[in-house]
Amino acid sequence: MATTNDARESSAEPLAGHARWLELCMDTVEDGPRLGAFWAAVIGGEHKTSVADPAGNVVVPGLEGGGIAMCPVPEAKAVKHRVHLDVYAAAIGDLEALGATVLRPAEESGLGWTVMADPEGGEFCAFLRDPDVLPAYRLHGVGVDSADPERIARWWGDRFGLTPHDNDGGGWWTLDGVTNDPVLTFDFAPVPEPKTVKNRVHWDVYGDVADFEAAGAKVLWTMPRWTTMADPEGNEFCVFPPNGGGGASI
Hints:
The chain is an alpha+beta fold. 16% of the residues lie in helices and 32% in strands.
């Protein structure tokens, strides 16, 4: 699959000893543009398709690492997403008009955000912001269901050279600064249920496979341009060489 970051491969060198964020990837059962076009509109990106890659890519111009590569897969969504996206929006109705559905209104949960589903049923959370302050790039965070949020947040913090914080003892841990977007967070929240199937949202990084293995990650399979691995909680991610090569599906 063509990367969302092809034009930036020359600047893909991570800090010594640390991985560097490349992009997000999202599974889709449709060999077409619907899901990619939806997410492009939701986060403020540009959707591109090609004959070789009908599912297309979401590209956020001017923001390195802001893309979402759409990855066609044969299997449909079977369980709640263990990795989901958080987005900013001016109104829930705006997201519904794009094809999203409300699963749990903010008023019902009392949590301050609305749980929604994209056109293929993938859960995401919407945070309302005044239109006057709504950013052009509206991807607010990446949420990861976790058995041990502190442990896995610290593990990924070590990989990126960052220190997580525990949100005042709320039970979930956050990494700031994983991507180049100043407001995007990488959040690890506790859940009781175990991981049972491959995540339908994963991330790609630039890094060294041997370094990840030494830290406890496992190699799942190797492709010509990338290696698919699993972190200590089984979350899939793809590793590209530190000198670039970008963009994948699993």
